[in-house]
Amino acid sequence: MSRLLRQVHAPYVIRSLNFAQLQELAGEIRQEIINTVAKNGGHLSPSLGVVELTLALHYVFNSPVDKIIWDVGHQSYTHKLLTGRYNEFDTLRQIGGISGFPRPTESAHDVFGTGHSSTSISAALGMAVARDLKGDNYSVIAVIGDGAMTGGMAYEALNHAGHMQKDLIVVLNDNEMSIAQNVGAMSGYLNRLRTDPMYSKGKEEIEQILRKLPAGPKLLRLIDKLKDSLKYLVVPGMIFEELGFFYLGPIDGHDIKAVTNVLQRARTIKGPVLVHILTKKGKGYKPAENNPDKFHGVGPFDVASGEIKKSISIPSYTEVFGRTMVKLAGRERNVLAITAAMPGGTGLTKFARLFPERFFDVGIAEQHGVTLAAGLAAGGYHPVVAIYSTFLQRAFDQILHDICLQNLPVTFAIDRAGIVGEDGPTHHGLFDFSYLGTIPNMIIMAPGNENELQHMIATAVNHHGPAAVRYPRGAGIGCKMDKELKLLPIGKAQVLREGADLTLLAVGSMVSRAENAAGILSGMGIEATVINARFIKPLDEEIILKYAAITGKVFTIEEHVLKNGFGSAVLELLSAKGKKDVLVHRFGIPDCFIEHGSHALLMEKYGLNVEHIVDVVAGKCVPRKVPNKLKVVLD
Ligand SMILES: Cc1ncc(C[n+]2csc(CCOP(=O)(O)OP(=O)(O)O)c2C)c(N)n1
Ligand SMILES: CC(=O)[C@@H](O)[C@H](O)COP(=O)(O)O
Ligand SMILES: [Mg+2]
After folding, report:
1. 475-520: pLDDT as tens digits
2. 178 within a domain of the structure (yes/no)
3. Residue 21: what are its φ and ψ, rounded to 5°?
4. How far is the CA of 144 from the centre of ligand 3 (A)?
5. Residue 445: inside a domain, yes or no?
6. 116 lines ligand 1 (CB under 6 A)
7. In this structure, what DSSP letter does residue 136 have?
8. Is residue 559 part of a domain?
9. Model ipTM?
10. Is the CB of 394 within 6 Å of ligand 1?
11. What's the DSSP call for residue 478?
12. CA 474 – CA 415 distance, rounded (Å)
């Protein structure tokens, strides 16, 4: 096993292999990736699809002198294995282990950090310009998927690169898939390049055929004269050529020799080149080939059967959101749903099936999705924009300028809020209170459990202005679900328990932990009031001021950065009301990027576990009883 792979301590080693050996190495790499992801979870089908492409890239180019930039970076496992990380590969995505994405701090071969989509061409152009300004000499290669090519940034970069005419290679890895089936007119165009024999013949091949015809040379001259109208018929990759790129392809991305040849050619061409590579997502592992979506990003699974291990049967927040949307759409005709390439991840698959004309997958285009919602709202509809917290960061100005400034009725369903776990710093949703909280007209809610989530979505959809509901990744707390949807009073918190010694003011995922902490503190003789804030904006000033006055000690608890978060808003309120004598302690995420690792371990590391909350609170409050033996309920 891994006879060849274990010898590859650096990428140059593979240049001593022949093509048969490279093929054998590809098999070993696949096995290594499948076995590791089966244990740790990770991005399986994207990585399996680019094994040969990655081998060819490292065969032709001299990393890290030549710069290879991976768009999104979720397909970079082969790159990691070829660049000296084979021995640590079993730590993939584990706390303290190697990241699932390229990280410059991890290896000199990871020349640019990624995780969010469609950034690679801009970064590559920047590096190419920097190289030329310094008078250096190396190749810069961006590897971008067809899904990532639906993102606006990719076009902004193509536009600029075509104008700059710097030496730059863009490898388009076209597997006809985003996470789900790819969408959009560009995807249709790429599909025609793949399948239409007219397109798929190489430019030179078509020229040769024409030359052989009796009137061939004349025809070619004529074509040259009428270039602008006729070249559309004969030149594949026309859109890219028009943008100033030299187009090469399409090439079978699993034929190492063919990919190596085309990359060698691309390397010699002056100016920007686009190499169109065709691959199969999940290649080499049947369950992933048959279900590339399910195995895109996957938890631990059984290699032999392809069965994904599901540990908890409690519905996830995502599922509850999806069900609520179906309920709401059934009764309110103006409710629409928008996703940016994540119909499954956001729980909208059933909605899309039942209400296809009211569902919009805009591609990886969060900014467009938000302003599309603004337009739909201006046209009399109530769009629900379902985007992960981390990806919504992209659309800050669209939220502010296109929605909130016009006070348009749009609901933001913000999934994956808080620490998401193994995807790490590019994906944690820890900034949404901050970036949304500063915008006038925006209402922000966070449910304490999955039952409350459904009511909050209904409340937001009933509200005639912008409203956001942010909720975490994964399972709810397993609470009883109300059959009927309720409307919550805007800006009203919920008092869950009363105690005279202190106030635990918790929001979202931290509410159940605050309740657990209060139970333990009570056993120690410390009686806590527990408040489920429900609203981050507007805050329930009345309740907060009341219990701050009664208890004199307020502990805010949030799974969010402390800077400009929920606790900061509470501090601002107390300061504005002159409550200088109230002790305030804020639990939350410090001012740093949080690494990857399991949710439970990261919560513990950053002091958001019940045990730590109890310790801190007990240290600031004098127990009235001798403490019982602590029964600590961890998350
Ligand atoms: C800004 C942003 N939005 C959404 C995502 C989630 N996402 C990660 S990979 C992916 C699909 C990428 O498709 P493609 O580029 O074709 O790569 P493939 O997985 O097919 O190899 C999406 C939507 C993201 N990473 N970044
Ligand atoms: C690479 C990427 O951005 C997505 O695949 C992301 O990892 C999905 O996250 P979830 O697994 O939480 O849906
Ligand atoms: Mg793709």
Report:
1. 999 999 999 999 999 999 999 999 999 999 999 999 999 999 999 9
2. yes
3. -70, -35
4. 8
5. yes
6. yes
7. -
8. yes
9. 0.99
10. yes
11. -
12. 10
